[in-house]
Amino acid sequence: DRALVWFRRDLRADDHAALHHALKTAREVFCVFILDRDILDALPRTDRRVAFILDALRVLDDDLRRLGGGLIVRHARAVDELPRLAAELGVQAVFLNHDDEPQALARDARVAEQLRAQGAELRSFKDHVIFERSEVLTAAGGPYGVFTPYKNAWLRKVNDFYLRSYPVERHADALAKTLLAQGVPELADIGFEPATLSPHLGQGSRGAETLLADFLDRIDAYDRQRDFPAVKGPSYLSVHLRFGTVSIRRLARLAHGRMVGGDHGAEVWLSELIWRDFYHQVMHHHPHAMTAAFRPEYDAITWETGAHADALFQAWCEGRTGFPIVDAAMRQLNQTGYMHNRLRMVTASFLTKDLGLDWRRGEAYFAQQLLDFDLAANNGGWQWASSSGCDAQPYFRIFNPTSQSEKFDAEGRFIRRYCPELAGLDAKTIHDPWARAPLAMQGVDYPRPVVDHAVARERTLARYAVVKSRG
Ligand code: FAD
């Protein structure tokens, strides 16, 4: 009997649920990745994620060959191509890992139906998170709406069983060699332009390996360093978690082991991995929140619209708001496809609460630009900042961008890296240069602030008042 493993957001050959189950079940196992035209055709030709994926596929193909198989790569519509390939190979089952995004679920349901019609089945497994769907519920049997009790329940439930790796190598002799595995195409072959990726990310699972080794040397300092964008504090593993070039079980096991050993940095980092699970189960239980406010009363808010609002949005996207920390953050995003977590909170708060713009506009821009874009986490982050989400920041808590800058980039090191035109200013004036050093700003090509924070703050409190009356 034959099986096909369909890789999607799990681009590695080790500790892989679907691959492991397929190898244990079938005598001959084929592997495929489909460069899905339903997704790719809508992307700009310069999208960096496509370059990341192709790199990751090359490493995956290499690893599968080393284990005795190889990767079939197709550039087509997945809903058509997957059943076609399954028929061509004569497989009885297609194995894959859950993807709980609404569009992915709809796609997989169509594929399952088609396979059924051909007499084959689709078998899907949890792989992307430690706990999914309804695995962690309250005593009353409902989903958690607050993070801390969710996290406590998560920590009570977790044990070696959930953190154990799938030993793919053990049954690797079932991997089939096939002439259909003809290597991975180049960007140009599928109509994309060359893209520059930060060399630190590395290629696929090998890049994740290097980043992880580097992070484990400083994980104990994570709690103290993670909030300062100029410091190498976080792991930078998000894109690898997004595309599954590293296993979440392995990361959670490492962090959990260190936490039990008394490492506070590892404990705080594990908390972030639990946030990731938290937002995934929010998406499962509340799919409406992927397009509307999680708390419906927030849909009554009237956001700024019109030509002036559009110009403000453009200034935000391009890093020209006149608020150096916001501009440096947006330029980091535009140049690298990454933004530090503290700055994601600052820029998201700025868009919604200083510019008065709908959080969905910012969410969509991040979705285009972030290499690590993940629907559940991005939506969770934006609805946290706009106060409309599950366990969100209260609406009357409004970040002051200048004090955030003074607190988290005190020396202005991060600002100078991405706003070189401000490099000559000292640590006192760089956070609010037009107010504090107007003379030094003469002749500097840097915009004046597009809004007055104090005025914007009052306007936001008034804008959100509608929530109080309905909530
Ligand atoms: P680390 O600090 O090393 O954290 C380790 C991992 O934990 C991350 O890689 C990520 O997988 C997970 N994680 C950390 N914080 C969160 C969080 N708040 N929610 C969910 N998971 C988390 N994260 C994404 O992966 N994709 C997104 O599209 C995304 N959009 C965001 C949008 C906004 C407005 C905000 C405020 C946050 C967003 N985040 C998103 C969460 C967080 O900012 C990133 O995960 C983090 O900055 C990635 O960097 P890192 O891997 O170095 O993080």
TrEMBL record:
<dbReference type="GO" id="GO:0009416">
    <property type="term" value="P:response to light stimulus"/>
</dbReference>
<dbReference type="GO" id="GO:0003677">
    <property type="term" value="F:DNA binding"/>
</dbReference>
<dbReference type="InterPro" id="IPR005101">
    <property type="entry name" value="Cryptochr/Photolyase_FAD-bd"/>
</dbReference>
<feature type="binding site">
    <location>
        <position position="222"/>
    </location>
    <ligand>
        <name>FAD</name>
    </ligand>
</feature>
<dbReference type="InterPro" id="IPR036134">
    <property type="entry name" value="Crypto/Photolyase_FAD-like_sf"/>
</dbReference>
<dbReference type="GO" id="GO:0071949">
    <property type="term" value="F:FAD binding"/>
</dbReference>
<feature type="domain" description="Photolyase/cryptochrome alpha/beta">
    <location>
        <begin position="1"/>
        <end position="130"/>
    </location>
</feature>
<keyword id="KW-0274">FAD</keyword>
<dbReference type="InterPro" id="IPR006050">
    <property type="entry name" value="DNA_photolyase_N"/>
</dbReference>
<comment type="similarity">
    <text>Belongs to the DNA photolyase family.</text>
</comment>
<feature type="binding site">
    <location>
        <begin position="372"/>
        <end position="374"/>
    </location>
    <ligand>
        <name>FAD</name>
    </ligand>
</feature>
<feature type="site" description="Electron transfer via tryptophanyl radical">
    <location>
        <position position="382"/>
    </location>
</feature>
<keyword id="KW-0456">Lyase</keyword>
<dbReference type="InterPro" id="IPR002081">
    <property type="entry name" value="Cryptochrome/DNA_photolyase_1"/>
</dbReference>
<dbReference type="InterPro" id="IPR018394">
    <property type="entry name" value="DNA_photolyase_1_CS_C"/>
</dbReference>
<protein>
    <recommendedName>
        <fullName>Deoxyribodipyrimidine photo-lyase</fullName>
        <ecNumber>4.1.99.3</ecNumber>
    </recommendedName>
</protein>
<dbReference type="Pfam" id="PF00875">
    <property type="entry name" value="DNA_photolyase"/>
</dbReference>
<dbReference type="Pfam" id="PF03441">
    <property type="entry name" value="FAD_binding_7"/>
</dbReference>
<feature type="binding site">
    <location>
        <position position="269"/>
    </location>
    <ligand>
        <name>FAD</name>
    </ligand>
</feature>
<keyword id="KW-0285">Flavoprotein</keyword>
<dbReference type="InterPro" id="IPR014729">
    <property type="entry name" value="Rossmann-like_a/b/a_fold"/>
</dbReference>
<feature type="site" description="Electron transfer via tryptophanyl radical">
    <location>
        <position position="303"/>
    </location>
</feature>
<keyword id="KW-0157">Chromophore</keyword>
<feature type="site" description="Electron transfer via tryptophanyl radical">
    <location>
        <position position="359"/>
    </location>
</feature>
<feature type="binding site">
    <location>
        <begin position="272"/>
        <end position="279"/>
    </location>
    <ligand>
        <name>FAD</name>
    </ligand>
</feature>
<dbReference type="GO" id="GO:0000719">
    <property type="term" value="P:photoreactive repair"/>
</dbReference>
<dbReference type="GO" id="GO:0003904">
    <property type="term" value="F:deoxyribodipyrimidine photo-lyase activity"/>
</dbReference>
<dbReference type="InterPro" id="IPR036155">
    <property type="entry name" value="Crypto/Photolyase_N_sf"/>
</dbReference>
